[in-house]
Design a protein that fits this description.
Helices cover 49% and strands 12% of the residues. The strands form 2 sheets. A 7-stranded parallel β-sheet has the order 1-4-5-6-7-8-9. It has a two-stranded antiparallel sheet with strand order 2-3. The protein starts with a helix and ends with a helix. The longest helix has 25 residues. The chain has one domain: TIM Barrel. The protein is α/β, with parallel strands linked by helices and 346 residues long. The protein contains 15 helices and 9 strands.
Length: 346
């Protein structure tokens, strides 16, 4: 049985434009919060395949989105590479001990880190067993640059001062770390595919922290290397890349090319611009501003605008330009899905 989401990634005909939402399994859903409370904390939930499976499927049941995205976190990779990870309520993720020295870098587990992520693969197997055949399951990872940022800064940052200082003063250190992460991510995504993921997305959440030359040297080239590796071995698996906040670099991205299928557009990038620069080469995913979901009127206006730009004949997957916000009304999310399905019916 074909899957609408996968068909759309390859520009095959679909009955409507598919839609799913980043962070669709999350705090805006009361049923998610109930499971989260049962788990005790976020990391426990990531480590419990039965519960992670349940929250992965909740948005399918509630919203009728066209794809499920694996419930996990990008930071499970550095965690299994040997870095202690905490999730602090009201603050977010934190690595108490960060990467500073060559000894820290040498101590990272590289060869067997992906093998340790069995709870992720078990979740995928359970979800694929429970999920309707026509619904795709999207696996994912953070990009090497985004993961490296957390590993060096220790937490989210507004300035990126520590990691960017490392780029300026010790680029070899950064490339060594990024190469290690790239190696682990290739294995991790392969194992997700082997467990049953139908597509994989690479999230480069901190792409916009880098000026243009640094973005292509320290982020984009590693994402392309991972995509090339996956596509060479699994050409039937769509690869989606999401570098957030790089609208100024689209000309260079188009010029460089790359073996991936879908370019994910964040809300700060006009869809018209993304279509003009990349729409002939890649399927585009995105990019409604998430706060539009606070109002059905604003939601409908946003949907109509994006459909006006992208049309309904393929080459587009509807999504938000970033993740769902925790205080959104689930009914408004359902309204978004229904509106997209209705307005793009072929």
């Amino acid at each position: 049985m074909s899957q609408i989401f996968v068909d759309a990634c390859f520009r095959r005909p679909t009955p409507h434009t598919p839609i799913w939402m980043m962070r669709q399994a999350g705090r805006y859903l009361p049923e998610y919060m109930a499971i989260r409370e049962k788990a005790g904390n976020f990391l426990n939930l990531c480590h419990a395949p039965e519960m992670a499976c349940e929250v992965t499927i909740q948005p399918i049941d509630r919203l009728n989105v066209d794809a499920a995205i694996l419930f996990s976190d990008i930071l499970v990779i550095p965690n299994e590479m040997g870095m202690e990870l905490e999730f602090i309520k009201g603050f977010g993720p934190k690595f108490p001990k960060t990467l500073k020295t060559q000894a820290d870098l040498d101590a990272l587990e590289v060869e067997h880190a992906a093998d340790k992520l069995t709870y992720v693969y078990d979740t995928i197997k359970l979800v694929r067993k429970e999920l309707a055949e026509d619904k795709a399951l999207i696996g994912f990872t953070g990009s090497p640059w985004t993961l490296a940022t957390y590993m060096i800064e220790g937490q989210g940052t507004k300035t990126y001062a520590i990691v960017k200082k490392k780029i300026a003063t010790d680029p070899e250190y950064m490339h060594s770390l990024l190469a290690k992460l790239t190696h682990v991510i290739k294995q991790y995504l392969e194992k997700q595919i082997f467990a049953g993921a139908n597509a994989v997305q690479i999230f480069d959440s901190w792409a916009s922290a880098l000026e243009e030359p640094a973005f292509f040297e320290f982020s984009w080239k590693y994402m392309l290397e991972i995509a090339e590796h996956i596509k060479a071995k699994y050409p039937h698996i769509p690869v989606l890349l999401f570098p957030k906040g790089v609208s100024g670099y689209l000309d260079k991205i188009a010029e460089m090319g790359g073996n991936f299928d879908v370019f994910c557009v964040d809300w700060s990038t006009p869809m018209e611009l993304a279509k003009a620069k990349l729409g002939d080469t890649y399927v585009l995913q995105g990019n409604m501003e998430p706060t539009r979901l606070y109002s059905k009127e604003a939601t409908k206006e946003g949907v109509e605008h994006i459909i006006d730009v992208m049309g309904t004949e393929g080459g587009h997957i509807f999504n938000l330009g970033h993740g769902m916000l925790p205080d959104l009304d689930p009914e408004n999310a359902k309204y978004l899905v229904d509106t997209v399905h209705e307005l793009t019916k072929r």
